[in-house]
Each structure stands twice: as C-alpha cells, then as structure tokens.
Amino acid sequence: MKLRFQVFTNVQRPVRQVFDAVYNPKKLTKYFTTRFASGPLEGGKTVMWSFADFPGSFPVYIKKTVPNKRIVLEWKAQDGDYHTRVEFDFKSLGPRKTKVLVSESGWRQTPKGLASSYGNCMGWMHMITCLKAYLEHGINLRKGAF
Predict the structure, then answer these.
(1) Tens-digit pLDDT profile for residues 104-120
(2) Does 73 score more than 90 pLDDT?
(3) Could you give the CA distance from residue 125 to residue 115 in angstroms, rounded to a whole number?
(4) What's the CA gap between 83 and 90, in Å, rounded?
(5) Which residue ranges form the domains of the chain, and what is each CATH number?
C-alpha cells in the first residue's frame, strides 16, 4: 500500500487569485509560513520556509509550476532522509470559485512513515482552510492556534 493522501476545499475567489496566494511568498506568509517564505514557488527553484510554531527553516524544492493550474514540490520527510512529493492543483469552478487540491505521497511504509503522513495530512488541510479564511475574510487562522 502506497502512503498517499489528498485534501481539498473550495475557495470563493478566482483561480488566479487563489494560485497567487500560494505562489507568492508575501501572501503565503500572511496565513501559512508565518515567519517567512524566501521566494515564489517557481519551478526549478529552491525556497526556504519558516514557521513561528516550528523550529528552524527548511528547504522546499519546486519541481514544476503551471500558472493558475499546478505547483509540485518536494521536501524532506520528517521520519527520515528522503523526500515526499506535494502537488497543488487549482481548478476553476467559475469566475469566483476555485477548487484547491493538495496531495502528498512518498513516505516509507513504516510506522514512522505512516505517522508522518497523518501529521502532514492534518497540516495541509489546515493550510487550505487558512488559505480560504485569508482570501475570503482577510484573517489569519494560525494566529494564536499553536
């Protein structure tokens, strides 16, 4: 069994605005990477992410970017010295509605890998919920959450 999950939500904003809120480091830090994101999620680049509630910063390897459609990245798995793959897909459901899907895969099939996948599943669901709150209501749900 491959360890893989997918979470999604609909955001009441145009796809270009939703995509930009993930791609653009100035916006990403408003609701997710609460300390900093060093650059845009441009294919072929490596950026650094840092969170106020998580010690240190870490590299995020951007594998592919298709504007307003897809971002693919890899980062180090918490349970070992290997990478998992994260895929963001953006689907326009009309002029003011976007479906955001986030999937992650690649953990080792071990108890630690399974536990790490559960933690990341929670984290990505939290991220897209925070994205929705930020874009639709201008609030940061992470503030005071951790």
Answers:
(1) 999 999 999 999 999 99
(2) yes
(3) 16
(4) 23
(5) 4-137 (3.30.530.20)
